[in-house]
């Protein structure tokens, strides 16, 4: 069988979702998959991007034949169902890799609508077992494979080291920094005294911070540069309004979603701090690559109690996972497992 993926126009290069999709295209290409559409482009003009992606979708009609396999990355805007129907019309098979679920992320789809749409796929690659269970609870019946964690391709290497007992303990957060999206950032003054917070991203509203001495705002730094230059002890994964729990829509989404920033932190050799109820917490705990917490109020005491031996073990384990995600290991394994399931259908 001939194997394909479908490329498109990516109009925002620095977007985390686009980074994940472009990485998967590169991994699939190295696995011998061919592009069924037009070459990947990065036009910022919306009309140009729309026309190029549409032309690539239509090209599938002339590329695919019986028994071919096509990997489609989801969401794929308006085209997903149309692309799947074309592939099936040509008697091909579809493997879908989920990046985001509209039911949670954009709220533009109901669960019923999303399940109906994704049922066009022959095999689905989901983030983790929690997402798989949610899909099944909503009536999804097609075969599924778990990715576990997103790979993160970059030529950059982090050679910085931090002694576990070095003070202050430095924690970084990379992502959206505005008050509306991550209100909890602006309440951290109330619970932090023994660690320092370094923020990477855009739209940080410094005027809303009580004590600025505990914060270092680094601004937006491209991921390759961040991997090379960051020097800290931990990377934080937390979303929502509250320091007590991951709240709001984004907090709820953490219960089934794999944040791409986790892979970025791993590439930086940073052990991860994550909400205990997050789907990725089990991966962090099982691989001993960080700490899982109920509330950010716990951080002062938890970070102070971590021994040098425990911290160094986390870093050693992180470096092993780093090698895997730098090579595309998790995507390769998931796609190979999906191909095996296709042969059974």
Polypeptide structure, described:
The structure is a single chain. The protein is of the alpha/beta class and 345 residues long. The chain has 2 domains: 3-151 and 328-344, Rossmann fold (3-Layer(aba) Sandwich); 169-326, 3-Layer(aba) Sandwich (Rossmann fold), CATH 3.40.50. Helices cover 38% and strands 15% of the residues. It has 12 helices and 12 strands. It has helices at 16-30, 46-63, 80-89, 111-118, 129-137, 223-229, 248-253, 260-267, 281-286, 299-305, 308-327, 329-344; strands at residues 3-5, 34-35, 69-74, 93-98, 123-126, 144-146, 169-174, 195-200, 215-219, 234-237, 272-275, 290-293. Strands 2-1-3-4-5-6 form a 6-stranded parallel β-sheet, sandwiched between helices. A 6-stranded parallel β-sheet has the order 9-8-7-10-11-12. It is elongated, with a radius of gyration of 21 Å. The chain starts with a strand and ends with a helix. The relative contact order is 0.13. InterPro entries: Gtf3_C, Gtf3_N. It holds the Pfam family Gtf3_C. Residues 171-338 form the Glucosyltransferase 3-like C-terminal domain. Keywords: Transferase. Residues 4-149 form the Glucosyltransferase 3-like N-terminal domain.
| CATH homology group of the largest domain | Glycogen Phosphorylase B
CATH class of the largest domain: Alpha Beta
Helix content: 25-40%
Biggest sheet architecture: 6 strands, parallel
Rough outline: elongated
Indicate the mean pLDDT.
Answer: 93
* Neighbour order of strands in the largest sheet: 2-1-3-4-5-6
| CATH fold-level label of the largest domain | Rossmann fold
Protein name: Galactofuranosyltransferase
Keywords: Transferase
Domain Glucosyltransferase 3-like N-terminal: 4-149
Domain Glucosyltransferase 3-like C-terminal: 171-338
